[in-house]
Each structure stands twice: as structure tokens, then as C-alpha cells.
Design brief:
Layout (H helix, E strand, L loop, with lengths): L1 H26 L3 E6 L2 E6 H51 L4
Antiparallel strand pairs: 1-2
Length: about 100
């Protein structure tokens, strides 16, 4: 039952956000000039803002992937070091003789 309610809630959120985007786009329909280095073009203001948002999200996502890859590599290195230390400890314990 929880899963079904979750899907309905997600659908309502998506519909609400879509409605906000449509309202935003219609209220910001005026054309603006965009210049990026030597490229110059005219575009609706809403597309410029949404495009900037998407580009920023993409850059953030890519930097997150790079950070996660570094952490995964570091974790693998630490796990290998831990295994080596456990093996070394096990080897030393096997030589201990109680008299």
C-alpha cells in the first residue's frame, strides 16, 4: 500500500512541477539576445534560464561522479590494506604458544 501511495505522490509532484514550468515559460516568453564568445542568437528567456539550470545540474552531476570514483578507489585501497593487516595478525596469532 505504501508503494502505491508513493507512486501517486510522485505523480502529483511531477504534475505540479510541470505546471510550474509551463507557467514560468509563458510568463518569460520574451526573446533575449544571447552571446557566447563569437556565437550570438536570440532565444526565449525561459529557455535560457532552464538551459542554464540543466547545464549547471549536469556539471554538478559530473563532478559528483568524479568524487565518487575517487572515494571508491580510496575505499578499495583501504579494504586491501585492512585485509593485509588481518592476514598479518592471523599469522602472528598462529605462532603464539601458551605454556
Amino acid at each position: 500500500m505504501y508503494f502505491i501511495c508513493m507512486q501517486k505522490r510522485d505523480l502529483i509532484i511531477v504534475i505540479f512541477l510541470s505546471l510550474l514550468i509551463v507557467i514560468f515559460a509563458t510568463q518569460n516568453a520574451q526573446t533575449v539576445a544571447v552571446q557566447l564568445w563569437i556565437v550570438k542568437f536570440n532565444s526565449p528567456l525561459s529557455l535560457v534560464i532552464i538551459g542554464s539550470l540543466v547545464l549547471g545540474a549536469l556539471i554538478s552531476w559530473l563532478s559528483l561522479l568524479v568524487e565518487l570514483r575517487k572515494r571508491k578507489k580510496n575505499l578499495a585501497k583501504k579494504n586491501q590494506e585492512l585485509k593485509h593487516l588481518k592476514d598479518e595478525l592471523t599469522a602472528k596469532d598462529s605462532f603464539d604458544i601458551d605454556i
